[in-house]
Amino acid sequence: MKIVFFGDSLTHGTYGVSYVNKVAAALRGHHFINEGVNGDTSLNLYKRLERDVLDHRPDGVLIMVGINDAVSHSEPGTQLYYRYFKGIHGGRITPIAFRENLRAMLTGLLFAQIRVWVVLPPVEYRPALVETLRQMNDYAKAVCAELRVPSLDLMTELTPAEIPDRPPLRALPDMLRNLLHRPRTSIDHYDRLQTAGGFTYSFDGLHLTERGAQRFADAIVPFLRANGVTG
């Protein structure tokens, strides 16, 4: 099968480690295409659906999106980033807008007779962000159930029970620094950031460490096998 992984920086591996390579290593004999883009929201994915998914003529698409939507909605200090660098009107995606963007993507893919799987991502930065993403993931579950699209809830599985109330995210310097350069990519560097920040599967509350990416893959591989992907 030709399968597109469609998402944001977690999928691309812009910061930290991508889970896609680990899934591909476990599911031999398929052609995997990584179409993750740093900072993308559900609206950004919808706008590039034809170019980055349909033009590949894939057999299947795995979508994982929502973290940037939740950040834009719950972290006002980041909205300049999403407005000017991601083209989001007002710099914010509401939970209802997220739901409808996802519905539009899934409907278009199903109409094109492409198999679709949806993974609901976790986040562990601070409680306000977690609650916003949980609301968006609940909407995603409902849309997937309505359209009979298989979904995998990583948020329930991986989000810690206790999350400190860390400082709000900001466009400057947090988001702009990520836009301008990639941090060092050594495994030890990310592990040290994870320990210093008190995170469990990420190094900054959002992006994956090596072990975090493996935990994603360990859940996604059997999910795909249970939903029609051999290997």
Decide which structural class fits the backbone. alpha/beta
In sequence order, what are the helices and strands, one letter per element? EHHEHHEHHHEHEHHHH
Low-confidence stretches: none
Strand order of the largest sheet: 2-1-3-4-5
The gross shape turns out to be globular
- Per CATH, which architecture? 3-Layer(aba) Sandwich
**Gap between N and C termini:** 11 Å
Oligomer: single chain
Q: Count helical runs.
A: 12
CATH class: Alpha Beta
Mean pLDDT: 93
Whole-number count of domains: 1
**Helix amount:** 40-55%
- Strand percentage: 5-15%
Radius of gyration based on Cα positions: 16 Å
Main beta sheet:
5 strands, parallel
| Strand count | 5
- The CATH superfamily turns out to be SGNH hydrolase
Q: Give the CATH topology.
A: Rossmann fold
